[in-house]
Structure formats: C-alpha cells, structure tokens
Amino acid sequence: MPEGHSVHRIALQFERDFVGHLVAVSSPQGRFAAGAAEIDGLRMLEARAVGKQMFLRFEHDKWLRIHLGIYGAWDFFGTISAITAESEALGSIGAPRLRRAVRMAETEHTKDTDLSTFPPEPVGAVRVRLATEESVADLRGPTACEVIDPVQLAAVLERLGPDPATDRSQAAEDRFVTRLRAKPTAVGQLLMDQSVVAGIGNVYRAEMLFRARLNPHTPGKKVTEDQARALWADWVQLLDLGIRTGQMLTMDGLDAEAQALALANREDRHWVYKREGLPCRVCGTHIVVEVMAARKLYWCPFCQK
Fold first, then answer.
1. What is the overall mean pLDDT for the chain?
2. Is 219 annotated as catalytic?
3. Is 221 one of the catalytic residues?
4. Are 29 and 147 found together in one domain?
5. Which of 9, 28, 52, 140 is catalytic?
6. Cβ of 169: how many Cβ atoms within 10 Å?
7. Catalytic status, residue 257
8. Peptide bond preceding 119: is omega within 30 degrees of 0, i.e. cis?
C-alpha cells in the first residue's frame, strides 16, 4: 500500500502538470462515469495530499477524493515534470518536459509504453482518466474515488490525524502525542491508525519503532511524552526525505557509497522491514515477524525489549 510520501509525490505531480489546466475527465472502465461527468472540462485548481488520501480541487468547489488503498496506482503519460531536484537526479520521474510513461504507486518506475500516438489508448480497468493537452493520468484499482463537496471534504479531513507534510505546527504535534498516549492499544497498531497520525504504513511503522528502540506491543498510554514527541520528530524527518527522493530510506549514518546502494536496493535500505530471520544490523538477534493490525510487523526482540 502506498504510504504518505508516495501520495504527496503524486499530488506534486498533479500540481506540476495539471493544476491550472482544463481537464478532460472520463471513466474508460465505466464505473466512475457519473462522477467523471461532474468534473469533465473543468479547470483543476489545487492538488492536495493528507496522509494516504489525495484531493484534487476543480472549479465550482468540486473535489475529487482518491484513496489508492492496497492496489491503487496512477499511470502518467506525456509531459511529466520532475517533482523535486532529488527525484530528477535519481531518475525516478525524469527531466522536466520529457514525454514518457511513469507508474506511481507504492514505488515509482518508468513504463515501456509506445507514445508515438498521444494520448495512448486506455489499457485495462482504468477507473478514471484525467487529460490535458500534454499530460494524461490514468487511475487503476483505488479503494475510493469520488466527487465530493467542501462539507464532505471537511468531514473526511476531520477524521484524519495530523500530517507533518501539511502541518508541522506545535498544535499538530501535540494532537499526535495526545491521541497516541490516550489509548491502551499497542503503539505498533496506533501508528497505523490514520486518525492518530496520517500517512504511516507498514514500512514506516516497523522502521520508526526500531529507530525509537520501542517495543511494538507497548500500550500507547505507557509511551512517555518524550518518546511520543521523538516519534513525531522522526516521522517529520522520514516523510520529508521520502517526498524529496521517492524512497523510504530509513537507515541513517550512511556514507555516500552506502546511501547510493540503499537508494538503489531495498535490501540495503531498512533496519528491520522484510528482514525476518536475518540478524539485526545492530545486535545480531534474528529479526522476527508477526501480524499486527492485519499487516506483517518486523522487529528486533532484543533492541526493542
């Protein structure tokens, strides 16, 4: 499932290449035909991400809400601008004004697609297609895709916890700390609760808990205030890095060569995620895996006593 940094990068892609343009909206699959008709031909005015959800604002106060869920992905075709200087250098999106095809979901990669005819014909179950004269975005497999009004938008946002990519205020931090420490639920489950904090998924959960040397079974109400504020600060740092690079790089203290390897290969990128049965990089104890909040949780039973 795409985590917060991926959704913010997708929103930035729309900001670069769609905001300000009139957009033709269709539903090649047919399942979103009524919603597409509501916003077809309108100008896109804003692209915003909060946690794992994205909101595209069109004229007449119409918002397109998308939650990719586990299987959702966006395919971009045509003019695809670089999102950040780091992503351009890493080649995850490509140079500005370059015509190519890119898939953006949990990871990003360039697709082999014939763009000699533009726009390309939709392939497969495309829920919604957004098209300008130079850029096309196809959405597949989302959990949610709906047109909402400002009142409905406010209701959705009210249910979400703070997202440091959109709000790094003291109030946002305090809200996270209060919500986390108010519950007897295990901290490993609370970090996945989008009403507590928005954007953290399975990878960041495991890695943040290891970086904090915090047992995932610790009840939220037993997490100290200092520990909770340290978790927030770490999420601020990791989310910013993920948005800039497009990678969930959670190992720190790496030299230039090691960092290059980590960016190129997931096996060199994380402390515990997907390393079950392998020795902990710090203490040598075998990393264990269990199911928590319906997802696999990876942790070190020695470092995270």
1. 91
2. no
3. no
4. yes
5. 52
6. 10
7. no
8. yes
Residues 6+ away with beta carbon under 8 Å from 88: 82, 94, 95, 96
Q: Which two tokens stand for residue 80?
A: 């695809």
- Whichever domain contains 200, its CATH number is 1.10.8.50
Q: Is 3 a catalytic residue?
A: yes
Catalytic residue among 31, 43, 295, 296: 295
Average pLDDT rounded to a whole number, residues 237-245? 93
Q: What is the mean pLDDT of residues 16-45?
A: 97
Residues 2, 28, 142, 216: which is the catalytic one? 2
* Neighbouring-strand partners of residue 297: 290
Helix or strand or coil: residue 63? strand
- End of a domain among 156, 190, 213? 156
* Residue 106: predicted pLDDT: 63
CB 74 within 8 A of CB 104: yes
The radius of gyration computed from the CA coordinates of the chain, to the nearest angstrom, equals 20
Exposed/middle/buried for 34, CB within 10 Å: 0-12, 13-18, 19+? exposed
Which of 91, 122, 156 marks a domain boundary?
156
Higher pLDDT pick, 294 / 285: 285
pTM, 2 dp: 0.89
pLDDT digits (tens, 9 = 90+) for 95-133: 333 456 776 766 676 766 667 788 888 988 999 999 999
Helix axes 170-181, 225-245, angle to 10 degrees: 120
Whole domain around residue 80: which residue ranges?
4-156
Q: Which residue has tokens 């096996």? A: 267
Structure tokens at 192: 């996945």
